[in-house]
Amino acid sequence: MKTARMLLILVLALGLTAEVANADFTFGTPTNLGPTVNSSSHEQNMSISADGLSLFFISNRPGGVGGLDIWVTTRETTDDPWGTPVNLGATINSPVGEYGVSISSDGLSLYFDTRQSGASGAVDDLWVATRATIDNDWEEPVILAMANSSADECYPSISADGLALYFSSNRGGGSGNYDLWVTTRETIYDPWGAAVNLGPRVNSSAYEVDPGISADGRMLFFASDRSGGYGNATDDIWMTRRSTTDDDWGEPVNLGPIINSSGWEDYPSVSADGSTLFFVPSLFDRWNGGDIWQAPIVPVVDFNGDGIVDSADMCIMVDYWGTDEPLCDIGPMPWGDGIVDVEDMIVLAEHLFEDINDPTLVAHWALDDIEGDIASDSANDNDGTVYGDPAWQPDGGIVDGALQFDGIDDYVSTDFVLNPTAGPFSVFAWVKGGAPGQAVLSQAGGMNWLCTDSLEGNLLTELKELGRGAAILTSQTVITDGNWHRIGLVWDGSNRALYVDDVEVAKDTQANLGGPDNGLYIGTGKAMEPGSFWSGLIDDVRIYNRAVIP
To answer: Quick one: CATH architecture of 25-299?
Structure first.
């Protein structure tokens, strides 16, 4: 920690600028909130207080006023377990049911939707109840007349400053059936203005529901059954981001398989500090059989992907100080604030010298096995099968053991790991030996991801866009000189780059990449052509579903 403090003091002197917030982050393993909060009934649409001590949610469990009611569970500290949920009672809940809920940052205003008497017809409308202090009872709710219409208005989410209220509606003027809308006001004492559709970049011809706005107003999570998800006509959770609260929302991004599945995922809500995502998965549909789950939102702090946070990562952050480099913009929220500065260094220092279990590491073949025909994947379940007769070298690797390939018929085959068309990714491996024209890593029936040119043994990749105009990327750096080299390919969604010994040796723009959903070969080319088999050592092969900066 002394080193961390010294580096922190050093970088405090560097200048600051304001840029775009677009940091890299991922999600930890989701966990169920357990039987104290969840029941054999249906729980949905939760909202956590700014202090993290009260969780409001909807449930149709016994003991309520109507069918779906608003309940709250509390805890003494954020380290304590949640207590037994309490129904908010008949002042808030009604016999017809409440469907969405959102608590203001000061805990004094509760927004929800219901079909109480006084609403505009047999549809959901938005309401708000207030209280003088968090120890007082809730007063009678009032309807938000300006925000409502003759259609449904549901699933409200109030911004931290209380000036923007996001919700879903099937009113006219949108892109699809249910769209995301927002109503705003100048101060918390002013009336709400006319609702505005978030537009076709966020909304689609499908359903967009369950908005969850982050405390900094830069991230909006929501559920949608749009195309590109992990289910077949089921809801996934998506997110859209923006640079500042005055900017337009960006293209929505699916949260990926850690959160989403072939079933239904709905009702996203993020804690005020950005550290936790709450949501409801269900095998049935968005209205039945769901429990409340939570998943940690994790900043990616192992910038160079070597499995440990150390001075090398500190140096990378210092290199990008004052910029908007997304890899290093990790604080105070996991998605950053648009500038690499002291906030990010504080987050990095908290993880200094930790061994990292990186969720973005989708495959890691350490090649440290001693014998047998299985190359173990320590990151996931992508064990490879060894063919030919390569020799295990328990003490012969650059990182513990390695695998010696004969250049004739030795290789490792794996099942499908990653499709290059899915988004940013990185591949790194240690190699020694080899010859011109040989391959280190390829995709069966696809392209050679890491290989050498046929003349001098320079590192190249054949992974490129589909179409006539696409070209391979070749470096001018020989890797077949008999020395150990760490080689890598990184695609950040716009550019592809090759690395040798953590130095960028070639780079170009590549907006998209082609590739099938096939398995991988380690130690031979895409079609196992004669001459493509590697003759030398390969060690520590890693694949990430993010862009890594060595």
So the answer is: 6 Propeller (2.120)
